[in-house]
Fold each of these.
Amino acid sequence: MPTVHPVLRDLPDYPIVRVARAREALEAQGVRVFDFSTGDPLEPTPEFVRAAVQVDPVCRYPSPAGLPALRAAASGYLQRRFGVELPPAQILATRGSKEAVFHLPFAFIDPAGPKDTVVYPTPGYTVYESGARFAGGVAHGVALRAENGFLLEPWSLPAEVQDRLAVLWINYPHNPSGAEAPAAYLERLAAYAVERDVVLCSDECYVDVSFGAQAPRSLLEFGTKNVLALFSCSKRSGMTGYRTGFVAGDPELIHHFGRLRPNLGVAGPDFVERAAVAAWSDDAHVAERCATFAAKREVMVALLQELGAPHLGGESTFFLWFAAPGGDDEAYAKALLELGIVVIPGSYFGAGGEGYCRIALVPSLADCQAAAQRWRTLV
């Protein structure tokens, strides 16, 4: 038997992989499946973005930092959307946000030193934990609670955890709950990062998918010292398969992360980044996408209310988070699966997710309506 990295050996199957197996088994039986599991919307990528994909006759190695035009477009987006003035030198292109989430701990923890701990929210994106563990760090998940708005409060952690804290992850709007972060909380977090000298990483890939009167804020609005914020075209522009995004913030942190990236071979192809330039330079298509999600959201929110299991999070992301009737999230998800409706049990997202389920507003509006009708038969 070959030697296997101990983290990989002990790692459970990725949640989406587990759900995909169940979906494929249903489809093989000829069942019409309504898949609300993976956050991979079916709405087409805008035509003007697709038209911007142009492959050069000679396609050379891309820059790990990203095309200058892409970093300039990202800078323009930050100024328009948040009023944050950041020069392109404080921005790095990434292959979506997932690879950056995974790789950041490799740059900013010392597994053999006093700063070896990565703190992250649960339930949440499982890559926060796996990136920390593969980098040799101590992964410390913090279970979020509905009672305090699903806010991760590092100042409430045990002193020994805070003393060893190297990287702190937050994710607002939050996956899976959709919760948003109040301005006062973000302001306190920015001050905490400076005071405790920790790298504060804000995963903001859902910041433009919102349905409330007030658009979600960026942590960058409250300071850039010790702060990195991650953005992605995946959700904002329907470009999940393009794998393009960027990280922005503290110039020293950007410098160190930029030194790491040539060693990873993750530079995005120029032809993809040209499409990203178009996407970051336009805001109208984002509003159109949000209107589509809002119509689907209205159908499913009404269904959950009718079932006595209302959405518990905020008014952002294309996810809905609800308490599973009966209290057993896996049993409830399994019962829905037997009807051909696929949702993700909350426990798949880590501690604190037990007893909840997540809906991703991926099916079309007509399919959401049909799924709601079928869902009611479970009651």
Amino acid sequence: MTGTNSLIQIKGLRDGLLVSLDDAPWDEQRIAFLAQVDAQPDFFKGARLALDVASQVLHVNELVDLRDQLSERGISLWAVISESPTTENTAQLLGLATRVSKPRPEESRQFSVRDLGDETALFLERTLRSGTRIEFPGHVVVFGDVNPGAEIVAEGNVIIWGRLRGMVHAGSKGNKNAVICALDLSPTQLRIAEEVAAALNPQENPKPEIARINENGKLQAEFWSPG
């Protein structure tokens, strides 16, 4: 995937996920989106999905095909939002909603999934609060804090551009080369592959740190110079 197809905008709604595509040719968008779903099956499986297709003009067969392809992946398409009257009418004919309630600002779950060739990264632009669990088959980057009671599990690296107070497990499928970075590293628990580090107390004058498995197979943290 290239260009805009490598970025899917997603927001969390009370009724499920809202996925926003753009005005690129529909076949390209559909193929790119399904490829992204297949790349993160655990993330999307079981989701109730509302799809914003911008001004795409879609007919019954196109929406039926997409609905069936999503259903095969355990995803329920319940709404289609479009600037096109034709697409809106098509969605209504299929019994799909054409309006969704907007999330409150504090409930918004904004992030993007980027295809990085052989790797994939999840970018979250928010603070993860207690009770939030993020699990992703790639790298995770958080532009915000990870509060106590929040948890991140990633098969790749985890980078926190903020304070890490919760739990993070990088290299969750056994990748001992994974790292965990934070501007303030004071987690409840750190884990890389099968190695676990106990909680670290908050520092009075925190500095960026990186945690990795050293040559002796132990998980340790050291100062990190971002950039």
Amino acid sequence: MIRISRAPVVATAACLALAACSGGGTTAAPGASETASVQSSPAAKGDGTLSIGTVLPQTGSLAYLGPPMFTGVDLALKEINEAGGVLGKPVTKSDTDSGDTTTNIASQSVDKLLAQKVDAIVGAASSSVSESIIDKITRAGVLQFSPANTSDAFTTINDQGLYFRTAPPDKLQGRVLGDLVVADGNDTVGILAMQDSYGSGLANQVIETVEAAGGTIVERVDYDPKAADFSADVAKIKAKNPKGIVLIGFEETVKVVQELVKQGMSASKHKWYMVDGNMSNTNFVRAPEGTLDGVKGTLPGAAAPEAFQKRLLGVNAELAEFTYASESYDAVVLIALAAEAAGDDSGAAIAAKLMDVSKTGEKCAGFKECVDLLKAGKDVDYEGVSGPVDFNEVGDPSVATIGVYQYGANNKFNAAKAIEYRKGNIAG
């Protein structure tokens, strides 16, 4: 069982043996999270129509995650509105682009959504992008709900009680990844991590876990993800000849992989490991067959089951990635249930009910089943597609699951079937 205390974030070295997150974050603003006591401004009652905006990647380094996340949102809204909507009215939606930290697209998108007076914003995917817009969103009294932020900074950030996420903090994924690397017999490990706090945070936790288990980090390279060439970075790893190589990054990992192969450090000679930021079934399709064969990686949340994938494909038949689709779907369903439970679609009212609909009451799955219970006067405990969720008082899921996946010779992994799961409790 994994227990992570708050204020400040300190993780105990609890049981990870045989049991054990996305986007880069920057340094968080000081101040404790106020989710348990919502203090939003303004605190006006909603207008009776739940309006959701999305700030998700259509462009930028995480653009490949856009389709599954948008599709998860769209599927949830389809099912919610087919069940009668929220507070007797259809839920409305407006999609915008988050871009990445090289642009100001996310801030412009938020301005657009706030002008439309949305009640809740789903996004961003990147933690660093979310940190750049969180103040603007929450100070407007709007709920921000990310399906993919994993930076530990959000546990203690001053969010006016209006920030929630369905993805667990990086500390958990870092521990699972480090534990996996050692369990696979790698007593010498090299790390190539993108140079931001997403990469640094995960790398730090992997190092701590590997060294605690008796392994040795022979080289760590923090690289510029915008670099045109990674030959010097890979050469540093090659010089130390580690058994295992951990790759922590986003889309630029494609170039890193090409350089590893070029310098004779293929996955057939060394064991490679990836994370949620670079696990993809589309980014590596042009690589020679077998390039990623046997490579393992970690993804927060339960695998999207085949039945759920079919529902997603019914909305977007061309969907090839499923990462964070479940978390996006759950985010929208939870927002809708909380608004229904509150009888109010304002951001503050929704935030005040998210803990209630996620962890107390009668267990239920899907919006219709849960909303029927609410209308019958019962408390509900929504069981999500991504896992039980169960929010703690700072807006983090209190129970988290990390799936371990493995690539085949076709350079793809089965997103519906993890080779193992590692679960942990995150204490509030």
Amino acid sequence: MYLSKIKLFLAISTCLIFFFLTYNDVRSNENNVISGKAIVTDGDSIKISGNKIRFSGIDSPEIYYRGKKQQCTFDKVKVYCGYWSKIILIEKINNNIVSCIKEDEADQYNRILAECFVKEESLSKYLVRSGYAFAYRRYSKKFVEDEEYAKTNKLGLWQTEFQFPWEFRKSVRN
């Protein structure tokens, strides 16, 4: 009888230790995820519950930067290509819940850097592969293949004459 009480105690103790170890892992993963209804602010940024989130590894044309709107030329007509990216993102998210996996560091504007998903599909990958955002090679090589696909197939902004967003920002600063 005494031996079976010891075995029971050991079994319960082992289960409790396992529970607490896995519980902490689950909680730490929960701290790295933000989910909810998103408000699209531009082609690579959203807000969820007041949290400003910038998609890591990609860059989209600027809607408004230092008093200027980024333009592209499509069929000899100047268009505000930052709005195109924003509209594509709004349509993709639709009314769905967005889940974002946060990176450890914020960006220079104190926005959360994250990769965000709708129905397990990466919004960053979707935007780049559709041609409405670009792989931000300075920070990541993750979406380079998707950009090459869009460029080769002349999708989205690859049908236009454009400046990369980082070049546009640099030209406005100078």
